[in-house]
Amino acid sequence: MSLIKQLWIGIILILLLAMGGSFFISTYTAKGYLEQQLQLKNIDNANSLALSITQMPKEPVTLELLLAAQFDSGHYQYIRFTDPAGKVIAERHYQGTATDSVPEWFNRLLNIAPSPGVAQVQDGWQQYGTIELLSHSRYAKQKLWQSTKQLLQWLLVAAIVCGVIGTAILRFITGPLNQAVIQAEAIGQRHFITSNEPKTRELRRLVRAMNKLSASVKAMLEKETQKLERLQVASQKDALTNLSNRDHFIKLLDSTAVREDQEQDTAIYLVRLLNLADLNQKLGRDKVDQLLASLGRTFNQYTKDDTGGFAGRLNGTDFALVLSGTQQLKKTAYTLSEHMHDKLIELNIDTKHVGLPLAASPLEIGEHRGQLLSRLDGLLALAEQKGNRGIVVQSLEQPQGLQRNLADWRLSIEQAITSDGILLGDFPVRDHDGSIIHYERPVRLHIDGDWQSAGYFVGWARRLGLLAHIDEHVLNSALADIRAKQLPCAINFSESSLCDAHFRTRTLELLSNTTDINSSLWIEFPESCAIRQMPQLKQFCRALRDLGCKVGLEHVGLEFTRIEELQGIGLDYLKIDSAIIRDADTQDTNHSYIQSLCRIGHSLGMIMIAEGVITETEQRSLATLDTDGATGPGIK
Asked: What residues pair up with 576 in beta bridges, in sequence order?
């Protein structure tokens, strides 16, 4: 029970005791007062009647007439005149029918019963008889009943007024308490905020303590995040260019082979800075370092808006760049070469002395990494023979799907959706004890006579604006499977869908009708959403969690290291990219980075899952690095 309810119960009990006590005391006081007044009236009337009889002749007829006149002129229950021996001389009783409007139960509870008035009648110095009379109490009872009802009505009005005033006062007093409750709930959702300290002493101590807790946890997260950034730079980055180092670039390249959503329409560019040693002598080491850093910024700029792109420095002179899209491979290669030439001019370097040949080629599906790099080296050697700005672009024979134009792709994708050509994959995600966390359900579309993974069509669907439409059908299929199989299911929403307001609205409307199974639905977004679409991500994730869904990010750790910025979202889990965990059983390069990443995630209450695990030894090694679960080809 909430504190507000307890306070209200206490206030109501106090009001009941105070007003109930006042009601009963007032009612019983009025009853006593009326009885006393009736008793005094009885005594006064008896004395007055006795005095009149004493002063008049004691004839029976006269006495009878006097008693009758007295009885008829007042409201009496009875008048009785007896002699000293107790014999009745004359007597009158009320013979009418009482039209009493007072309830019987009220009469029983508050019966007005005054004592009768008694007076002695004298005849000279001797006692002649005794007068006894009792006034009728029905009028007093009616008055008491009416006054009691009026008192109760006024007390009810007073209670309502007190309730209204009490509500305003309680709202004012508990305002800081409500803020403390909001802060406590925010901490429970891994959102560490601070509140203004109230004037109330007790609440001030509570809010101050919670502010200290929020500040200390936030400081801890910031410290861990700074450590994580340093570890990322040390284990994954080239210090001078801020590009991926060779080992990390190779792991990124390898991870494309195990990622379902990796676009097949991808190209790789290889650039070589010729005669580096001679340049150091001619231009000076500082100038050459400026050139290398400038080239790094150029390559990073190309990958900034490409969700599947990445760049690396393979050695002192070679740079590699992977980008989505091969339709304008030659144009991109020449544009990249021009940008590098512009950087030379900006640095006031004589372009005649600097060679930057470039080789470009599509990434052939299934091609071994060693064969790919060897082929690119051959292409780059041909580019060197063409001169300092030599460019060689190789166009491989592309699969049937990549030869379509946009109109053909739109027709193929829409036909696959409308003809029930959607299938969800089924890959287990397990904790390190082997228990199921959930099942990953990547989308398949029936295109070109076969079930194609997302990498086959996702690039074209993005260009055509169809990703939100596909994701909506995936959600419907996932909910149907959950209802049928009663198993936890994880699906992916693209960045394009996140940015689509109509998709977000339709999704929330659909999930509002399936609240009984939403707890089995795990929804994940790519890491790029946390970098480029943080406001939409926060708003949508909160709405999804309010409907009972679990929300997470996939492919985490490649770019986004400021994990503490996720605290306001309240994510349930993170999936660490396969490029980071690759070869964790044989190389300890990323061990500290993985542990630090998991430590921050755990402090925010998130489950940390490793992606793309290939072997059992890799999984066992990851279990020692604070991960909670794993998925990939090696997890069955």
From this structure: 556, 610
Q: How far apart (Å, rounded) are the C-alpha atoms in residues 145 and 102?
A: 6
Integer-rounded Cα radius of gyration of the chain: 47
CB 577 within 8 A of CB 558: yes
Residue with tokens 């489950």: 607
Find the length of the chain. 636
Rounded-to-integer distance, Cα 10 and Cα 33, Å: 34
Residue 192 and residue 218 in contact, taking contact as beta carbons nearer than 8 Å: yes
Q: CA-to-CA distance for 358 and 320, rounded, in angstroms?
A: 10
Half-sphere exposure of 429 (CA within 13 A, CB side): 27
* Amino acid residing at 298: T
Helix (H) or strand (E) holding 491, with range, is strand 489-492
Q: Which residues pair with 322 in a beta bridge?
A: 268, 310
> Residue 358 in 3-state DSSP?
strand
Pairing of strands 573-576, 607-610: parallel
Mean pLDDT by 10 residues, the chain (636 residues): 73 82 84 86 87 81 81 81 85 72 78 84 83 83 84 85 82 74 70 74 79 80 80 84 89 74 79 88 88 91 80 91 83 90 87 87 78 87 86 68 70 84 88 93 87 82 88 93 93 92 94 93 89 87 92 82 67 90 86 88 88 90 93 88
Distance of CA 533 to the CA centre of its chain: 18
pLDDT at 519: 93
**Which amino acid would we find at residue 225?**
T
Strand ranges (E), 11-154: 76-82, 88-93, 117-123, 126-135
Reported for 190-198, long-range contacts at CB under 8 A and 24+ positions apart, including other chains, are 190/566, 190/567, 190/570, 190/571, 190/604, 190/605, 190/606, 191/567, 191/568, 191/570, 192/217, 192/218, 192/221, 192/567
- Using left for φ > 0, alpha for ψ between -120 and 50, and beta otherwise, residue 580 falls in alpha
H or E, element range at 203: helix 201-236
Contact 556, 587 (CB under 8 A): no
The tokens for 504 are 């977000």
Q: Residue 327 in 3-state DSSP?
A: coil
Q: Do 322 and 309 contact (CB within 8 A), yes or no?
A: yes
**Residue with the two structure tokens 């919670």:** 210
Instruction: Decide if 274 contacts 351 (C-beta within 8 A).
Output: no
3-state helix, strand, coil in the chain (%, to 5): 55, 15, 30
pLDDT at 278: 86
Tokens of 167: 């509500």
pTM check: above 0.70:
no
Query: What's 244's DSSP letter?
Result: B
Bridge pairing between strands 521-526 and 489-492: parallel
What span, in angstroms and rounded, lies between the C-alpha atoms of 158 and 166?
A: 12
Q: How far apart are the first and last CA of the chain?
A: 46
Per-residue HEC secondary structure of 613-626 comes to CCCHHHHHHHHCCC
Contacts of residue 398, defined as CB under 8 A and 6 or more positions apart, other chains included, come to 326, 362
| Residue 491 confidence (pLDDT) | 94
Sole residue written with tokens 């986004």: 560
Q: How far apart are CA 211 and CA 205, in angstroms?
A: 10
Cβ-contact 309, 321 below 8 angstroms: yes
Q: Which among 522, 517, 515 has a CA at the least distance from the CA of 541?
A: 522
Under 8 Å between Cβ of 614 and 633: yes
Q: Which helix (H) or strand (E) holds 450?
A: strand 450-453
